[in-house]
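README: folding subset

This subset contains proteins for which both the sequence and a predicted structure token string are available. Records are stored as plain text. Below is the entry for Bifunctional oligoribonuclease/PAP phosphatase NrnA (312 residues), shown exactly as it appears on disk.
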Amino acid sequence: MSKILAKIEKAEHIVLISHINPDADSLGSASAMYTMLLQKHKKVSWFCKSSEIDQKLSFLPWFEKIKSRFPASADLAIAFDCADKKRLGVEIECDLINIDHHITNTNYGDLNFVEPDFISTTELLYDLFKKNGVKINPKMATAIYAGLLDDSGAFLSQEVDGTTFATVVELIEHGADFKLCNKKIAKSVSLAAFRLKSVMYKNMLLEESAKVSVFCLSREDMAMSGAVAEDCEAPLEESLYLPHVEVAVLLREQRDLGIKCSLRSSSTVDVGKIATLFGGGGHFSRAGFEIYEKLSLDEAKNRVLDLIKKEL
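--- output ---
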């Protein structure tokens, strides 16, 4: 962190990067850093290639500052929660700092601070702030709590322990609006998401003696419901609470004709390992990848299931 802070001190224009299709962790990390840089009176911009960002996260501080155009005058960029450089969505010509918690991170930055032991990148950032005497205000605390809440599955993931809740207590003491975060991230749902959930549950398959739940979504399914990619996450993760289910699989056709696969595991199967075999990445219990071969959803499903069977 001392090297990161030294880079920040020297920089004239710093750009914070949230990855393509950002979640609360990537956005929360950038939001917290945005506040810190303003405290240092730095010129700061916030970049995200995605033009459509989940509006339920618009409560995060400085959300309205996000731009989809990377500023040419930047002399330092900081990427958050992005394991692979291609997910930045832009070629970086200035110095790049990579801050992340994914074990599959490719260390693509000029400076890399990657710590897989942390549940979220916001939790990692909070630890770095504390160790370097950075003052945490309510905006920063709210952004950090939001990322930790989301990446821990509302504190239900296997990685959560007493240290996690000790961190939560500290963030609340710093003024984190935890009630707002809980409402927006854990409970808020759109009409489109409601419609999509009914489609997903209706078409859900149980494979391998009901140990694997499988969801296949076509472009037509997404279009008819009006849902966005993030709306698929809740039903996928909820299926892990069905009796016997150990792995949940979502295969979704994308607009560019590729297939996006999201994987979730209750505890027994390392889905991060499976994702890396397809060029993706993630964690033991949460991972994903994309397929750009000419495969049908059914063909892609069979290929993924073959690998899951070996792990089971």
